[in-house]
Design brief:
mainly alpha, Na+/H+ antiporter like fold, globular
Length: 480
């Protein structure tokens, strides 16, 4: 041991001596003179050595440093607020969405303008947006992975009726409300057709991932109510994204021919994925993974395929996230394969990248724009229309197809959750120039309110079940 230490000390001494000697003898050497015309004039005196504090300040404005600061602030804020919400019985994703708004000008920018302008400098938002879009694409890919098509076939007879009623009624209410909102609240240059269609689809969305998380946290995902809600939400999710793709194609198109061309390309792309690509993926995954977990090559191939699908739909003229969603849907149905993909990709995307999307949405949410009673009255009206259309439409339809009133009410409360999926749709409308900041803020508040009320409404239904003995919990009798 002593001999080893002695050798190490001798090596350090020789190393330091050698470097010092070379630097000493080379100090007086001069570099070769270049052409006279490119010589830079030398300062008469060497520049003053900057202080440590000024150097830190200068380095903090580097784009990489700014992005890392944003990562740290956003992830800590979303995880912290999400944990607080989970402690009061709400899904943590609602807290993460709320944290994104708190990091925006509505709170952080209002309380500490200098800190807000430093962390979220305008010239850094382009990079933040790109990373947030990658997070959304990964999230939509995972949503497609979790869409169980076999379950849809098993219960499609009731699920299609309930879910489509939960789309048509709020869609009709949203389009009708546009007649009152468009003249004074629409974005400059927006068309009534695009505004009305987008308001309709924005009120019709259900957040399938949030609904699934609520059911899992309450331990009722395997009950009759839970499986029915998951099936209805899955049917509605697929339908709503299809309608949204149609709306985006209409808004982006420059004419009727362009609209039909975009829709035809989308339909052809879907047919190619389902008819030609899916069998090849099944064979590739079977040969590559067998009974083993998917290796790095398979994961890399899946990421490339997801990116290619996202690029295809972006080039077609709808949005990259539609391609990501379709890529997840056509993945092989092998359960272990999908679970492993969800674990590897979903974990990183949800924890690290998706919070950037919450923050970016929060930067676009200006609660201060609702600065009068009229604005808050309109926001409250939007929330009431959203609840009446979604909760009311699903509840009444579920009752008609045979569910009890309490199960119908619980199903409507679950389908009323908008959550993260609503934020994704709203940001599409914002980017397309359909939703101005004021309406965008109102719709974000609607998404938070409808998602937040799901838990309390289910608690009310549970209390009523305990009071009404003749009605078994969560539709057990109906399941039997």
């Amino acid at each position: 041991m002593k001999r080893t230490v002695l050798l190490y000390v001798v090596a350090l001494v020789l190393f330091a001596s050698g470097v010092t000697a070379v630097l000493h003898f080379g100090r007086g050497m001069k570099p070769p003179a270049g052409p006279a015309e490119i010589q830079e004039p030398r300062a008469a005196h060497p520049p003053a050595t900057p202080s440590i504090w000024s150097a830190l300040q200068e380095n903090s404005h580097d784009p990489v440093s700014r992005l890392l600061i944003q990562f740290i602030v956003v992830v800590l804020a979303t995880r912290g607020v999400g944990w607080l919400f989970s402690r009061v019985g709400q899904p943590s994703v609602i807290g993460e969405m709320t944290a994104g708004i708190l990091l925006g000008p509505s709170l952080f920018g209002w309380l500490w303008p200098a800190g807000f302008s430093f962390v979220f400098a305008p010239d850094s938002l382009g990079t933040l947006r790109l990373f947030s879009q990658i997070g959304v694409c990964i999230f939509m890919f995972v949503v497609g992975l979790e869409l169980d098509v076999s379950q849809l076939r098993d219960k499609a007879h009731a699920a299609v009726v309930v879910s489509h009623a939960g789309i048509m009624l709020p869609f009709l209410l949203g389009v009708s409300a546009s007649l009152l909102m468009f003249p004074s609240l629409a974005a400059p240059g927006a068309t009534f057709t695009g505004f009305a269609l987008f308001m309709g689809i924005a009120l019709s969305i259900t957040a399938f991932p949030v609904l699934a998380r609520i059911l899992k946290e309450r331990g009722i995902e395997k009950t009759f109510l839970g499986t029915t809600a998951l099936t209805c939400a899955a049917v509605e999710d697929a339908t709503a994204w299809s309608v949204l793709a149609f709306v985006v194609a209409i808004v982006r198109a420059t004419g009727l021919a362009s609209t039909f061309l975009s829709l035809a390309l989308v339909a052809a792309f879907v047919l190619i994925l389902l008819g030609g690509v899916r069998p090849l993926l099944n064979r590739w995954v079977h040969e590559s993974s067998e009974d083993r977990e998917p290796g790095r090559g398979v994961i890399a191939g899946v990421l490339v395929f997801m990116s290619a699908c996202a690029l295809a739909t972006e080039l077609i003229g709808i949005h990259a996230l539609f391609g990501s969603f379709l890529a997840g849907v056509v993945m092989p149905r092998k359960r272990s394969f999908r679970e492993e993909l969800t674990l590897r990709l979903g974990g990183f995307g949800t924890i690290f990248l998706l919070p950037l999307f919450f923050a970016f949405s929060g930067l676009r949410t200006h609660v201060g724009l609702l600065n009068d009673a009229k604005s808050w009255f309109i926001a409250l009206g939007i929330i009431c229309i959203a609840v009446a259309g979604k909760l009311g439409g699903c509840m009444i339809t579920a009752r008609i197809v045979g569910l009890s009133w309490l199960d119908s009410f619980s199903l409507g409360a679950l389908m009323n959750t908008r959550g993260l999926v609503e934020l994704i749709a709203l940001n599409i409308g914002y980017d397309l120039g359909i939703l101005p900041p004021r309406i965008f803020t109102m719709m974000v508040l609607m998404a938070l309110a409808t998602t937040f009320m799901a838990g309390p409404l289910l608690n009310v239904a549970e209390w009523l079940r305990r009071r009404v003995v003749v009605n078994p919990p969560y539709g057990v009798a109906a399941a039997q």
